[in-house]
Amino acid sequence: MGWPKEKQLTDDELVIRRVKKQRSKLFGCVPGAHQQMGFLPIEVSDQIATFATDGKKILVNRLFAESINDHNIRGIIIHESLHIGLKHHIRLVIWMKRCGLSKEDAHEIWNTGADYVINGMLKSSENYDKDFTLPDNVLWDEIYSTCGWPVEKICNDLLRKGWKPKPKTNRPPGSGGDPTSNDPTDNGCGEILVPEELQGDSEEARGAREKEEQDINNRVAEAAMLEKQIGNGKGGMFDKIFKSTGKTAPSDHIRYFLKKHFSHVRSYKRPNKRFLHRQIYLPGKIKTPHTLYACIDSSASMGRDEFETCRKNLVKWAKDLGLSKIRIAYVDSVIHMNTKTNKPWYDIDLKNGTGADAMELDICGGGGTSFDPIFDYLAK
User: Fold this and answer.
1) What is the average per-residue pLDDT within 357-373?
2) Would you give the DSSP letter of residue 357?
3) pLDDT for the residue 250
4) Residue predicted with more confidence, 123 or 243
5) What is this structure's pTM?
6) Cα-to-chain-centroid distance, residue 325
């Protein structure tokens, strides 16, 4: 009696097996990327030109995958992991609302700008050409790939210089270009797709984006920790992402600062279970109630609209961070003391962020603008 014959794999199955094999090799050389992409399902699709991801799965064009070598596949998987780590699919939705372009055109220029950023990061990595490479015709620009600009600024600059979308006849069904083209502007090497539930401006879509962003922040933090623990992956790309703010708006700088200090409190007392089966001990997250101290300008230049903007930011941060309490001081030329405590702080008690929507601010003050009183009080 002979051994049963091995099942004959289809062309699609062979491509998936090859991509999985190259992805597994990233654990030893670029562990942060493996952490981001190692557990995502891989599917073959003719609706994209090269590779693509929506943060939930990896899509592969079979013809394109068959045309590149193994080191290219590794490079593209890292490329896609950086799309996720930099939250390009979430940021695209926000930028799309103010760019004035159609959905298709905004997606096209955004993928171009994002590829400039990511390919610049990859080609400047110490282990580029050693552990991974990118296909010869990837998008790269002497300015945009080296200047350190965020994607938003690159796309705005491209529009200022007269960027125009490609004729729609050059695009196959879906969102890609021509997988056999030698023109890098036809397709790049890996797209970022936006899941349907993250699109739009409904309360559900905003909530889904906030949940997705928090999940990615946690995954990036774990990827950065894994890079340090293993001591490989000289590019340290996820450590750089973890340490960076990623955006330029002042409110976003504050938001990322708060997330960095509130959301990633970790301890070896609770090891991260995700890596224990590999005998890798990383600290796990610790649930700790937090209090945020905030000072609001209560001068005459602050109207109801400005106060409402402050309230919305506090609500957003309270939900993101699961805050238990916010202590607010209202300051203009003087501190408006709380008459009940004779201290600057007006306490807003929250239930780990769940009571944030009911938050109300007291509109008081109306004097001149000065930040000295609160800093003088703290100094004393």
Assistant:
1) 80
2) G
3) 61
4) 123
5) 0.65
6) 27
